[in-house]
Structures
1.
Amino acid sequence: MTKNDSNLYAALRAAFPDDLSATAVETDTGLFYTWCDLERGSAMLANFLRSLDLPEGSRIAAQVDKSVEALLLYLATLRAGYVFLPLNTAYQSAEVAYFIGDAEPAVVVCTGKNFPWVSKLAFQAGTQWVFTLNDDRTGSLLERAACAMDQPTCVPKQPEDVAVIIYTSGTTGRSKGAMLTHGNMLSNALVLKDHWGWRSPAQGGDVLIHALPIFHVHGLFVACHGALINGSKMIWLARFDPKLVLHRLPDASVFMGVPTLYVRLLAEPGLGRAACRNMRLFISGSAPLLTDTFNAWQQRTGHTILERYGMSETIMLTSNPYLGLRRGGTVGQPLPGVQLRVVDGQGNSVPTGEIGDIQVKGPNVFAGYWRMPEKTAQEFTADGFFKTGDVGKQEADGYVTIVGRSKDLIISGGYNVYPAELESFINDLPGVAESAVVGVPDPDFGEVGVALVVPRPGVVLDGAAVLAQLKASVANYKVPKQCYVLQELPRNAMGKVQKNLLRQQYSR
Ligand code: MCA
Ligand code: AMP
């Protein structure tokens, strides 16, 4: 064991193939990055970050478009021993202001286009440095790093050192930053390496089509760590385009997607066995995969999608097997090292096959919410299990089925949308007395939001205008697809809004 063994980057680097001149990443714009490029590029960025003389534990926030350089910035932050904070590119100024105010990053990296407003709010919040990074390999970050040394910096880290903060919205109140450690991510990456049968370069190697955004667990950790820790090449698509994925499938062996990606690929007439002839594995997660999609995929391609389940706070928790029965409608069995139990309202385990709240424990479970010790304590049981907020059941053979959520959350196209956040925004609009946002089924996104708004007495509200105001203020995937004006919201005897009724009534 060397001193560096617990820095996640050191483990990823150790898995690079012997031939560093081989292609590690091929982009949809025709660029080829070798393993040596990843090593040297991330070293230069890491040395540049170190040259800024930031305090240990500094946060490096990035709201940038998907590019290989954005991935290098993430790897560089690991190497430099700082804490990476990825932000969804759809976030607008109020959302970004909150994350920067809360996380207090020493460095913020944004696109050149957004520099005027991002730098203003970052400097106001006390950020020392704001750099730009564009998806065409331009920007002040790369200009500055071009002068940095490429010596192989990798700051020693302990497994419990925080590597990344991922913000997950709250059902009530403020968004929480889940702190994931080097140990969380390395343990999960190693488990998945084995569990999903990744083939080493010596075994012919795997090639991953990377079509997901890289500011969430799925695209950044499950996909990128998966490829890097197996020395596997990535075909890097800046955004998901079903035609492009179809075109590149014959060159690949692994694909990861949220269910919407599978639905959209199924709509392509060219999808069939021939296109998938070299594929080894299709993996789905982040949202429930409908049995119809699972079956249609099997019929059209001859491949059985492997569904898995995870969270920002825990990375991956359960998975259907690579070898063995992939049971549609289930998220498979707990991964090695993960303890999972299903409990009732009192915290007692329910009998096998009965529905309850899912709680988990394991080396992959996060270190807590950033600067929220009380909230962290509430989300863990006395014996150290994390309360996922998911409702499900586990069969005697270990297979887990998610049947719902105790948290008020809509998962739309793999993105989490918290009704409480939108309701609080809508309630502050002039003329609004109250509102409710519910999720309804949608054939493309799985689930989408619908807003129900009650006007103040004497006010005439227009649903489209409410949505337009939301669109000007929050990330557009959060904007409900419909808004209806009601005279009142249905309530139960306790005065609580009956969202189930609204969901049924407004299902499209
Ligand atoms: C875009 N829109 C959406 C969504 N995406 N609305 C609801 N839900 C969405 N997910 C909006 C657009 O802003 C646009 O609005 C309109 O819907 C149509 O957009 P479209 O062009 O169809 O969207 P797109 O750009 O093609 O994006 C769809 C997408 C994308 C490719 C499915 O949403 C996506 O990449 N989703 C993956 C998210 C993900 O990686 N999740 C992992 C989280 P307008 O017309 O008004 O502009 S990690 C996680 O969950 C855990 C840990 C796990 O288990 O993995
Ligand atoms: P996030 O907060 O983005 O990490 O989202 C985590 C949530 O996504 C989980 O708590 C689940 O509700 C949901 N999720 C992830 N994977 C699956 C899946 N395969 N099936 C159903 N829900 C899932």
2.
Amino acid sequence: MTMSIIKKKRVAVFVSGRGSNLQALIEGVAKDGIPAEIALVISNKPEALALQRAERHGIPIAVFPPTGLPGPEAYTDALLERLYKAEIDLICLAGFTRILPSRLLAAFPQRVINIHPSLLPAFGGKGMYGMRVHRAVLASGAKYSGATVHIVTEEIDCGPIICQEVVPVADDDTPETLAQRVLEVEHRLYPRALKLMAEDALEINGLRTRIRQRAD
Ligand code: GAR
């Protein structure tokens, strides 16, 4: 019998607010056999509720308000230094409201993933986050929305898609009711995507990803 031992990936989760996806990742790692450890939570906002969630679970936190350092290069340096110090392998963006610096993306090639509350490439791009997405979906008359986890690239919300799930739009939906149903889907989708990444299970070809066929 061959046994493959997978080294646990050290994950940093970037947050800005409520942190319900962070919570789903913490719980997913605890019970879904994901070979990962949430080793650091980074926020740009000191008041983010997500930081309290991290602390409750004994996860180290770091706050990087964008105005706290002399300029964007110093900000990137500080972020990178913290990530290297924590020996981070993978980064999950979970409601993080800032665009990541190119230098950080280059330091973690195909190692940064993001969750978005629509079926990308629809309703994504600059300025499309949170309730704005759900308002735009309803205004468009679309009958289906959903959630997407994708690999982060320089072009906002345009990287290779890891997984998606559809949520039908109800006739009487408001942005709030749609957001709530999409969020429930996000909470099971994100741990699933993290598992694929942590297991190095994905083959990425251009914008397409697929689960690697295993030899054994
Ligand atoms: C989630 O719905 C996430 O998909 C969205 O922000 C919310 C964060 O909630 N992200 C974006 O819109 C990114 N463009 P949470 O803080 O409870 O996880």
